[in-house]
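<given_protein>
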Amino acid sequence: MRTRAGLWIDHRKAVIVIVTEEGETITEIASDIEKRARGTDGTASEDGSAEDVRDRRLGNQLNSYYDRVATALRGADSIQIFGPGEAKGELEKRLEHEGLKSHVLAIETTDKMTDRQIAAKVRERFQT
């Protein structure tokens, strides 16, 4: 049985649509990334500047987020990735590291979409 996956992703959430002969499932994964503060108080700690600490925290949160998305895609034979910003390229690099890059068929830039629009786009891509 072939498993195909399509996902819309940005830095806040990923909406994953898994399509099999038995039907489709939609899963949403939230990134849990904190909103970045606009300013900085300029204080430093032994770990570095406040900005360095925030950047490391953001990097760790993104890594955890991409790990969860990659895990959800692990069984897919074919993967379609789309979304508005940098997250889709960052995820592609993570999937390459996980040995899944050969499963990625397409990466497209799209604006914000509803879950129904995402599912329809994935069904259209993988219609048999």
